Alcohol dehydrogenase (Cellulomonas hominis), 342 residues
Amino acid sequence: MPEMMKAAVVRDLGAPLVIEERPIPVPGPHQALVKVDYSGVCHTDLHAARGDWPVKPTPPFVPGHEGAGRVVAVGSEVTRVKEGDRMGNAWLATACGTCVDCLRGWETLCTGQQNSGYSVDGSFAEYMLVDARYAPVFPESVDAAGVTAVLCAGVTVYKGLKVADAKPGDWVVVSGIGGLGHMAIQYAKAMGYRVIAVTGSESKRASALEYGAELVVNYRDGDPGEAVHDLVGGAHAALVTAVSESTFPQALSMLRRGGTVSLVGLPPGTFPLSIFDTVLRGLTVRGSIVGTRLDMMEAVDFFARGAVHTKYELRPLDAVNDVFTRMETGTIDGRVVLDMGL
Ligand code: NAD
Ligand code: ZN
Ligand code: ZN
């Protein structure tokens, strides 16, 4: 067992990540040490490294919350996994387990939670610590690089769709076709919905159709709300994954009466909400943050059964700053996955 590992570290918010040698951490009683094989790069990692959000992470820290690998050591109290098991990390690193939200199965709302790659070190490293009571496990049969995008993007959109209260056959808008969006189209289809993808980039049209969208609306071609009403009479639900404030009111305008918009994209900022329109049209606006451990099991199961796929490109850990640059311009199709073996 080596003593040192390579990690991509945020030393200062807003500055490029630094590739460093760090000591391999030692698991506490409930923790497992995982040798990371792959880690997906989520836009949240970019928000974290830039300090975009009101609650900022404290440098130095290692981002990454879509890591997958194998357990190499466990703490004294760990019974759920053993050495050699497949395990990952997730945004929800751990929670208190005793507050009202934890007790009612909403550990994602626990105020005592810790978040991987934000308040605790994440998976942009050769090794990571996880809380063995909270971290996702997956079977040998799944593609380890492919499953990484399920661990945040997949579970987040799956949960966001679950709380959008649509029925099979309903029209669901997916706005923003990046890492989350490419999974959202597929989960929505697998859940029985009919998908309208909304993008500002014509190059994403073909991929959106390939992921399972029946219709694609380019918001640059005219008012996208009008377009969705003309095409299908308005959507029953909309899931906003785009990193742009303007897409939030835009998604609301696409809803039919009684519709729900589920917000998962996290650009910093606010958006105007018409009281009159929301009340008279009976609209619901919901925020949705990742998924619980149960949502994660279900989301991984969709992937393991082949009901959803992830589109990814492998890059070495050292390329993380280039990946962030591409992410800023919205030009990544699917996910970039860091391969610790490259
Ligand atoms: P990404 O960079 O892979 O994709 C974002 C996409 O939005 C890009 O394809 C970009 O082209 C598109 N976009 C930008 N402006 C747009 C516009 N005006 N209209 C339509 N599309 C537009 O990012 P990602 O990893 O998919 O993450 C998306 C957002 O979701 C981030 O803000 C991230 O922090 C957030 N997120 C939230 C949760 C949650 O639990 N709520 C979980 C994961 C990520
Ligand atoms: Zn709690
Ligand atoms: Zn994420």
Summary: The chain is about 25% helix and 25% strand. The two ends are 20 Å apart (CA to CA). The longest strand covers residues 31-40.
